[in-house]
DNA sequence: GATGAATGAGCATTCATTCAT
DNA sequence: TATGAATGAATGCTCATTCAT
């Protein structure tokens, strides 16, 4: 039987209330979505006005949901990290006796493809200081460790590498591809694979070396 | 009788002339230095006013030397790239039958330690469009290729990797270390070494895995 | 049964809506007014900051209404020209069998009294390029032609003069009076009258010759 | 016998001194010339740097001769007025029993053709306050009066008009032509002629009415 | 006397954030 | 609650003028 989730009892006009909350939630999502797209496309310097406009809400609504532009950025980042984590979990669950790490790296990299913002901000003190982001990040590292452990049992990855190693390399891929364009990613990932793969493993470089000329 | 008149083209009133020029040049250097430091510390968004103040010159002096903030950024970058290139040349010259690539990578990475700007801007269309920067960049790639060729003869590097591959990985190291702090660099470089080293080569990871917690 | 629902197109929440708009519109007017006065008094070089201050609004509010200082200038000019055109229309309408041209010239001249800006800018390529201004200007010339035709039927004006002639002379009056002070205007206008009046018409110079000494 | 103009006695190295003075004077003239041209072409807002460059001298040399930009403008204006006065004197001297006023007006107008600056500044309190300019201006008015008197004896000009009237109209011509372009000048002058000519005199409008469209 | 580098005050404009409605 | 108008602080940049040489 489906759980009949109880509404908080103190709620005299539940329909109205819920409608409002639904609207508010939708606004939040819309802002988040617009911000995500615009940050990806044009960097963290896009004005909040434009984000609000693209989201189809007023400026003040944006600021009601995210008291500060910083907060909005953090929320976008946390969102993206959460999505990545969800994907990782699914992949690990379904991995069986296949290697899972490299697929994950590719997945995340593609997801962030051309995102000049995702990691642009992460690492700044102010961002790492944010508990939400910290938590998401920690989770990511743990999942990466899980993937590594899984693959290590299969003899696929080099001894000594950790989840944070993999994440660090992945950060590099994302940040650099943001500059060199997505064409550089395949190559870069294949180099990362070479770094992480167990010594005996066959390891071919794919893609073509980056040209530095867009 | 031959005139003993000094050629004006040589250097008339050398003391005076040179003093003026020296002062001007010093100001240019001071601005360049201040900008380099501030860009490193706080990113490209630092105001020109602050740069001028730190350099101990007026705003207008800054703009006399670098008509645009963009120009200043470019000059700083070109300067840093040139220094890197000089180092590379020296190392290649003195390499003998020792491998040279990894030393070079370490050198550049250390040099850029904590520089959130060096590569932040490079790769943006506007910057790659700048001929000075383009030239410096191209030269860097070529020197990297030379290093690789040198080391490949010694059987030290993996087949198929190019100078631009190495540079791409190095970019990743610099950009990421800017976020994770310099502690991450040794580890990151050892991973890069693993990616580039010839398969048979022994290849230990050094440093400790990054913590993502400053 | 017909719905008694108010059309949103009419004016939903008219009080609120109108109040907001009224405030905004008032700000626009205040800026326009302040700009008009300051341009008149001190030329087009007055800073936007001072204009905003005089209008009692923040700088940014000024820029919300007029994205560029240029736009503000154009709006002021167009406003003034429109007012002049309205007056002309009224005068022509009520003229009957009385001459109308000279009254119009006086009216406009008085209106622009001491305005160093109204025509200072008009005529510059950039301004004539502006469609709004161009249209207003064209209308002014046409109305001047109408006035001339009206008066010509009464035998009051010289053959061959056109609306643009009259406007050109009037421009001269305004620009010069801006320098010599409003005392010069009556005299100047009486000279213009002498230039435009039909040869037989009696034509006395009035006012006193300008002294060039304020 | 030619006058042997005595040098001021206190002058131990007359050759050198004179050379220096000649150089200084030439610099002054060069600056004046460059300023005249640039003011004409681009208005009073041209930077002093550009003027100095065009004059082939350093900025400081410019400021040695004209302690203030204002002073330079005044000097240019005074120069132009003096030239106009010289011309007027010559014309009056050679007039005989021919009318002289209209020729003078045309001459001055042509001289100032497209000069957006000559009268742009004159009339401002600050400028009229300048004694040099005031004197030049007064002289101009007097010469204009002389011309009028001369022509009045020939029955060519309307009773009651004064030199300052004529100058005022002329100012209008110059200022307006600066906006409408030189094409408007012939027409404008013919209208001025109509204003000043004695009532019986035949008086045709020439040139074509201005279009206000560059 | 002449120079060009240096300067600070000033400019138009933008932006994250707040407030009145 | 949601809005868009309002705001002032900050930014990159220019210019007449001064100063060291």
Concise account of the structure shown:
The structure is a homotetramer of 214-residue chains. The first copy, chain A, has 214 residues and is mainly α.
Topology diagram in text:
Four copies of one chain form a homotetramer.
Chain A: H1 14-42, H2 48-55, H3 59-65, H4 69-93, H5 101-111, H6 118-121, H7 125-128, H8 131-153, H9 163-180, H10 183-196
The structure holds a DNA duplex (21 and 21 nucleotides).
3D architecture notes:
Four copies of one chain form a homotetramer. With 214 residues, chain A is an all-alpha fold. The first copy, chain A, has two domains: 15-67, Homeodomain-like (Arc Repressor Mutant, subunit A), CATH 1.10.10; 69-209, Orthogonal Bundle (Tetracycline Repressor, domain 2), CATH 1.10.357. Helix content of chain A is 67%, strand content 0%. The longest helix of chain A has 29 residues, at 14-42. Chain A starts with 13 loop residues before the first helix and ends in an 18-residue tail after the last helix. Residues 1-7 of chain A have low confidence and may be disordered. The interface between A and B is large, with 46 and 44 residues. The structure holds a DNA duplex (21 and 21 nucleotides).
């Amino acid at each position: 039987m489906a759980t009949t989730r109880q509404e908080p009892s103190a709620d005299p006009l539940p329909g109205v209330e819920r409608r409002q909350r639904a609207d508010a939630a939708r606004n939040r999502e819309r802002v988040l979505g617009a911000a995500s797209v615009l940050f990806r496309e044009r960097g963290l310097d896009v004005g909040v006005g434009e984000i609000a406009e693209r989201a189809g809400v007023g400026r003040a609504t944006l600021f009601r949901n995210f008291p500060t532009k910083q907060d909005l950025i953090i929320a976008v980042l946390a969102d993206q990290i959460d999505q990545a984590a969800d994907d990782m979990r699914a992949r690990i669950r379904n991995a069986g006796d296949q290697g899972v790490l490299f697929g994950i790296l590719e997945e995340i990299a593609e997801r962030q493809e051309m995102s000049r913002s995702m990691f642009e901000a992460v690492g700044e003190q102010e961002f790492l200081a944010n508990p939400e982001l910290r938590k998401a990040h920690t989770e990511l590292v743990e999942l990466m460790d899980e993937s590594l452990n899984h693959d290590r049992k299969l003899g696929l990855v080099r001894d000594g590498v950790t989840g944070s190693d993999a994440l660090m390399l992945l950060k590099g891929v994302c940040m650099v591809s943001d500059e060199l364009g997505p064409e550089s990613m395949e190559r870069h990932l294949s180099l990362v694979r070479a770094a992480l793969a167990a010594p005996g493993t066959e390891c071919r470089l794919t893609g073509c070396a980056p040209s530095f000329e867009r």
